[in-house]
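Quick entry between incubations.
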Amino acid sequence: MTAFLDVPSGRAARFDTPAPGDPRLARLSLNQRTTAQWSVREALDGARSAGLGAVGLWREPVADVGLATVARWVADSGLRVSSLCRGGFFTAEEPQARETAHADNVAAVDEAAALGAPTLVLVPGGLPEGSKDLAGARERATEAIARLAPYAGERGVRLGIEPMNPIFAADRGVVSSLRQALDIAEEHPVEQVGVVVDTYHLWWEPGVTEQIERAGDRIVAYQVCDWITPVPADNLLGRGMMGDGHVDFAAFTRAVAAAGYAGDVEVEIFNADVWAADGDEVVATTVRRYVELVEPYL
Amino acid sequence: MTAFLDVPSGRAARFDTPAPGDPRLARLSLNQRTTAQWSVREALDGARSAGLGAVGLWREPVADVGLATVARWVADSGLRVSSLCRGGFFTAEEPQARETAHADNVAAVDEAAALGAPTLVLVPGGLPEGSKDLAGARERATEAIARLAPYAGERGVRLGIEPMNPIFAADRGVVSSLRQALDIAEEHPVEQVGVVVDTYHLWWEPGVTEQIERAGDRIVAYQVCDWITPVPADNLLGRGMMGDGHVDFAAFTRAVAAAGYAGDVEVEIFNADVWAADGDEVVATTVRRYVELVEPYL
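Done. Structure below.
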């Protein structure tokens, strides 16, 4: 059992939590999936009232409310949208499925632009059902990014290739290391294609510090959460609150800062326990852990 | 549920299984953990009666029987010992624990020599309890290998650094890619230190074909099993029978053969369903899958 909340009650949880207005929270972004128990409206309100600078939004809940409505809410809130999750899923083999994926990604770019999100996070997709052709899937993802990139550039949105922990290579993301993501991104203008640096996905990568340095201004998003063990039965929900696992956030964050990254820091945690808790308590714990483990190294 | 056995009954399982004496089985090795339900004696008998050329042994069950006894059984069986599992666990921080680990690895080298195993497989070890210093753990593993290598060379045993799937980076193996393992191995004479190429651990690695080519005669063991999804709750037991998962054995095996590897091919599967089955049926299925998916590409 992970200690994903610092204290048991809502009132106590805020006891030594930095208050709204604390400048240390200016770059902290709540990815709305961290509080999946909340609606879009609740996430915006919760982030604002806790003093955060930004939120990361997801396409599906935004669409459920309506894009224009959420865009207005965001504008009214004073929050930035650090990124929109997610485009991608580029690895289908059939031409028609690839066209459908491209059209969906064009729409995702438009949505990011409408929300003022500088970055569309791309989850590359896994192996097609029954396929074992990992090299082919990687090639198709690379081609699809090349096709989408100019349009993203026109709309002022940067594509963020998200390398994913190899635990997901078969079923979710065939881009498996920052090195590989940069090999793809560097084929394109920096204002069109960058990379997402996520501690959960990359903490294990040999030479990751050098790759972060190499990434430089290709870093379009910095997402933090922890690698916890034992890996939960549903490994999609295996992300932990910062400090509950094995990630050295100081070293990782220093490297990202040294690379020149000056954007928001998104906390993105998929975890059934976190989702079962009170949203305000999750945000309060997030704030405390961020201020303790991440922010000092930015 | 994976289809880890081809047929339900022992008699039928052997129906179209290559018979003992089939030359295609000459390089096939049964890692004894694939049939954890068997004793050492049963594994030797089972491998020999199925026509395999070799077995991979583990230190603990060998010690339970007695090293000299097993060495005699092996000699009498006509089987090769393709490797001994396992040395390693090099990442402790305290000097005394590191001395203990070194002494244990010296003993493991001696056991490999006594069994006629050309290779001692090294599992590097994970992060010490509570530590987040991955770079430090990797450094200590590298130093421990450097210390052990000359002794292994004296005894005619090659150390096989086993890069492990990043799913195990925290708790089992801090060497996470073939590229990284080769960076360590290449500091030593080729007759002292090599690498273990295991499809389960490495199938996702970007550029793995080039790394296998780079490895060349550093490859001291080739282990095969499949990456299956969903990843089981106990991820240590998430290895599947070849053909049940996502690994392209043809491409992987071609690369290993092209690198010049001419040794045994060990089937090493940790899987609760496989362990619950009849050992002879597991071996029969292993043989059929190997002849279909691996052997043609050697």
